[in-house]
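Single Protein Entry

Contents — chain, fold
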Amino acid sequence: VHQSKMDFFCKLGYGKQDICKVLENLGQEALEDDVLKELIRMGSKPQALEHQAQPSQLKLVARGSCSTAPGLKWPGEDGSDSCDSLRPIVIDGSNVAMSHGNKEVFSCWGIQLAVDWFRERGHTYIKVFVPLWRKEPPRQDSPIADQHILEELEKQSILVYTPSRKVKGKRVVCYDDRYIVKVAYERDGVIVSNDHYRDLQNENPEWKWFIEQRLLMYSFVSNRFMPPDDPLGRHGPTLSNFLSKKPVLPEKKWQPCPYGKKCTYGNKCKFYHPERQHQAQLSVADELRAKTKVPLALGKEEERCQCSP
């Protein structure tokens, strides 16, 4: 009896020492329920539960070792970093500044608003092109507002000055639009400007397609930089898809049929019919054939039943 009880509680996972103590206290003829209650009262636990209760020991890795857990990945290792999926931004600084200044003042604050808007979206490559002569003190015929912003953006490696110089008192300015389109084309980015660059489109056919497909126009509404939600028109991509390298296709939305249940196109109808969701969409002719076959079949069965006696 003692051995059978020992085997029974050992199978449950209790230790032999705890079982022997309880059997000595309660006697060899004690019931199994009483022994189990006493084991629980003593605080004894099955060995399987004790292993679960113990905290998992952390595996120490030697310093300098490259070994990591197979399920763990460093941030950006799987290619899911949002910065890699966004297109580079090339801003026409003169166009943006003059638009913010109502074509009267070169407003540097407008450039800062545009840069901040793309920064908040997560774009890491942002370049602004401005002619070098904008560094000069403002004059009556070319006023500049908030000129210190240009210096701050230059320190941040965002603003780039296109070269210009004076020859015999006359200013020789390089064409900054060519810089803008060339850099955006080479980086496969987006041009931010309200200029159409028609002269450069005629100059290079590859640039023509690029300007038509990658030009992002904008508006300023109460010191707020606002690009359109549909940069390429009503039937074009959304703004988020336009600014990303890997556009996300929207889910196909079915337009309900304007005729509803009165539609006679059957399975040839290109619109959505909620009443036919769980039905085989047959044409009207097939539905009529199916309906006519059913009563004919029933009539033949009745004739057979009458003739069988």
